[in-house]
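Structure record:
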Amino acid sequence: MLQKPIRLALMASLPLIVGAAHADADAVKQGMEAYIGAPAVESVTSLPYGGLYEVLLKSGELVYTDDRVAFIIDGRIIDTTTRRDVTQARLVELSAIDFDSLPLERAIKQVRGSGKRVLVSFEDPNCGYCKRLGKELASVDDVTIYTFLYPILGEDSVRKSRNIWCAQDQAKAWNDWILDNKTPAVAECDSSVVDANVELGRALRINGTPTMFLADGQRIGGYRPADQIEQVLDVVSR
């Protein structure tokens, strides 16, 4: 990852140089925010590529500039020696979460087979790609699936989520709707979990559904077919 060489370079530098690097990063942040017209910068990191600085915006986007903010590059950096997509690797790193911090008790739990592999998903019941994902997940075995109800597509999504959460058998109510289009029966209980999940999803910068997380915290945005899900689950479980 980019962080290791940067860290090693900083450790080898004199304190004065380190101070100058911090000053440059601060100047880049100020310049970027002046250009944008808002305090939109999360962090600035010096890169070992052509005097560039990586600018992480609070929206989760990555852009690049120089120490004078004379230009902004909105694109990808490819390391021609390793053929590695540096930008994509960094985005994967930045989008990862602390898996152990997830409140799994607020998710619908399904255990299939040994349940030894773990997958978390944030889903809106009215999301078309969530329904497609549900059909793919139906064929995945030896997995424990935690589904966080994350209604962000309107009031009907909220209503369905509350009814599913309050159902006597949550997993059945979810699968009946996602797989067979059977509308969840009206049910009442303390469904504040749904509201808490929406707050959690926003804090995790989940802007679309489905969004999945693996046991190592890696984020997978969007629909994936079963074979791709199997591959990533196997890699993480090793």
About this structure: Confidence is low (pLDDT under 50) at residues 1-21. Helices lie at 3-12, 15-36, 86-95, 128-137, 155-165, 170-180, 192-203, 226-237. Residues 129 and 223 are 6 Å apart (CA to CA).
